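Now for a specimen:

…
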Amino acid sequence: MLKQCVSWLAVSLIAGCSLLVSADEAADMVGTLGEDEYAWFVLRQGDDSNASFMEVGDQLHVEVTGFIDPVEWSAQEALAMSLTLEQGVLVDAKVVQLMGETTMPPLYTSEGGNVLVTLSHVKQAGRDLHVVGQIEGQLALQHTLESSPSALEGVPLSVHFDITAQKVEF
């Protein structure tokens, strides 16, 4: 009887923990790509994060990769963005949506497309940079490394993001 009770308790704890994890998980980037709705997660493991920033002179360079699986680091359908901020103002932005398991084409890119990234909140607190914003527009399809992105074969994108990037120091 004690053995059955311990087994039931272990199963209940494991199930309860997995339910708590899934209930607490909130996507860092949500929106639509084409006609499909997506949620992308910034994965963290200790001090390692897929949202990071570096100070380069007066600029902050922010690199973010969101994955569709909240626990697995798979490039398939990942959404990546690179932001350059100067005194809290966005001066450059690039967005890429990966189609395969690598960062090689085919992929959708803001280069050759018509994408607007706007920021509604930027605040640095120590090693953390909190950035909230929106990505709107049309990504262009790039078939190969040698080919130029094609806006004619693009896909519309509308994504809200709320991320916290960790400072990279060497």
Observations:
- Confidence is low (pLDDT under 50) at residues 1-24.
